[in-house]
Batch of 2 targets.
Target 1
Amino acid sequence: MTTDLRDHLRAEFRWTDPGEGYLVSDRSGWWRSPAILAGLGDGLADLFRAERPTVVVSPEVTGFLVGPLVARALGVGFVEAYRAGARLPIAEPMIWAEVPADHRGKKQQLGVRSQLVTENDRVLVVDDWAATGAQARALRSLFGRTYIGTAVIVDECAPEVARELTLRGLLTGDDIEP
Ligand SMILES: O=P(O)(O)OC[C@H]1O[C@H](OP(=O)(O)OP(=O)(O)O)[C@H](O)[C@@H]1O
């Protein structure tokens, strides 16, 4: 099942060249694929099922596509982590974490409605991609001991960063090399 999923993810992934000296990942083929949508929740959930997560948290915005699939597969709920500056559709109070400079060198903040995660939760962070690990690091700092790890589709982090953040991926950077 997971082998099939990995094959589908590799097959539906594209690099695009906007002509600005770097390539940009095009992940739209993933969301268009019924096979990927059917398998992605369980595929990512299986990376952490043994750790019995009780809630999934994902960063804005692509994380909002992936996180609910994983929450559904685990039978738990989903919480949005918004970027500062977003027009928040949820009530205060929020807790905020500084995001270290990410893969574009940009600093930001991520915020979660504090009442949605309790100290007894076991938080699984889910995202489509990890490059520097900045989003995962920020959310780990936000949740402290309730953080159990981060599941991503593509893990491009340095191995020591992935280990430190308990970050696991379905694919590595080598799987989608241009
Ligand atoms: O490991 P990091 O260096 O933190 O990078 C990973 C982040 O980069 C991508 O998001 P992006 O900022 O491109 O925003 P998007 O979700 O709006 O596409 C991806 O969805 C992760 O959230």
Target 2
Amino acid sequence: MSNVFVVAIDGPAGSGKSSVSKAAAKQLGFAYLDTGAAYRALAWYLDDAGVDGSDTALVIASLPAFEYRIGTDPDEYFVLVGSTEVTEAIREPRISALVSQVARVPEVRTFVNNLFRTIIASSEKPGIVVEGRDITTVVAPDAPVRILLTASEEVRAARRGAELSGDAAKTAAAALAKRDRADSAVTEFMTAAEGVDTLDSTHLDFPATIAAVVERVNRARNI
Ligand SMILES: Nc1ncnc2c1ncn2[C@@H]1O[C@H](COP(=O)(O)OP(=O)(O)OP(=O)(O)O)[C@@H](O)[C@H]1O
Ligand SMILES: Nc1ccn([C@@H]2O[C@H](COP(=O)(O)O)[C@@H](O)[C@H]2O)c(=O)n1
């Protein structure tokens, strides 16, 4: 890996990984890599092509044609599959409900992890905040800052529910718990691995959570 300073952040669904990581990256002048977007984009791609995401052989066979690009500038975030911008579409509850079944396939994980390592190594900023489920343990276990960002399930569900409307808001808590259960069978993100710092935002507001991340990074950089 290159000399880029990696901040690795993992956590369960709705713990604030993307919003906090993006804001911390902006404050630090770092790049930002949302790894969940790759799994979501693959789920979107398969769904769009009418491929059954539960058919492991078909999912693996689809990987070579999956053209994926993500913006790592926190001010210009985008996600592309081929020439289609899917930045918003991959956040839909429908895709959230499909994503775990593709993320459980080891060949998918190897494929996207190679992409992530390439993106990290080619970053032109002094550092990069990388968030997901297995960043502190698998993608960047040697990162100088490793954080497990968490919050109680009730608080996470309430924050996620507040973003949604209609039926999706009502079912947000159940959907979030279901996804965590499925993802926990594949990666460990509910408890911190050795050397990983737990940041519990249950009783912290958004600015205080960002400040806690930035403070950890500055301390590690002796700033
Ligand atoms: N400390 C906080 N206080 C209040 N709201 C917060 C805090 N942290 C995050 N949020 C809000 O919680 C919601 C969920 O955050 P976010 O989407 O970043 O989580 P996530 O971990 O990336 O979720 P997912 O894994 O489902 O993509 C957002 O509306 C975000 O603004
Ligand atoms: N490192 C990662 C990141 C994500 N996943 C899977 O992708 C889904 C979407 O992630 P979000 O962070 O956008 O919620 C997540 O539910 C996991 O299935 C992963 O396995 N590893």
